[in-house]
Design brief:
The protein starts with a helix and ends with a helix. The chain has one domain. About 60% of the residues lie in helices and about 0% in strands. It contains eight helices and no strands. It is mostly helical.
Length: about 150
């Protein structure tokens, strides 16, 4: 799997599953609708696979990880986990180079760190799903940070 493949798949995930801010994935609705504690636990676990996601959640899910970046033995062999994390890291660098930094309120605090730039861009009150998807598409085409 390449950074381009992860970035492209992440766009598909954002467009199909939806986008959220403030969380890797938004499980609130499915958890609130659950009738029992076991149902709530299952809804929270399942959300890592199909609930709306943030930028990093989309990258993680696109690489075969759960939305919060954990290994899932049903999706990846153990030896593939390190490779998936490496590809997510490279995709994150490419994405960070394409975010609209004018939307980030605390840009200085990001210190140029790719993960911080991506998270703060996604979670900015001024950012929209369209802004986030546009950054992904620029990262696919721009090849920055590769």
């Amino acid at each position: 799997m390449t950074p381009d493949e992860v970035l492209s798949r992440a766009v598909e995930i954002l467009e199909h599953d939806g986008w959220t801010q403030g969380f890797y994935c938004d499980a609130a609705e499915s958890i609130l609708e659950a009738e029992s504690e076991d149902d709530r636990k299952y809804a929270a676990w399942q959300a890592y696979y199909n609930a709306p996601v943030c930028s990093m959640g989309a990258l993680h899910r696109a690489a075969g990880l759960t939305a919060n970046g954990e290994w899932d033995s049903n999706r990846l062999f153990a030896e593939e986990f390190g490779t998936a994390l490496d590809v997510v890291g490279k995709a994150t660098e490419r994405l960070a180079a394409q975010v609209d930094t004018s939307l980030i309120e605390n840009l200085e605090e990001c210190g140029g760190r790719p993960f911080a730039l991506v998270i703060n861009h996604n979670d900015s009150p001024a950012a929209s799903k369209e802004d986030v998807v546009l950054a992904f598409k620029r990262a696919i085409n721009g090849k920055a940070g590769s």
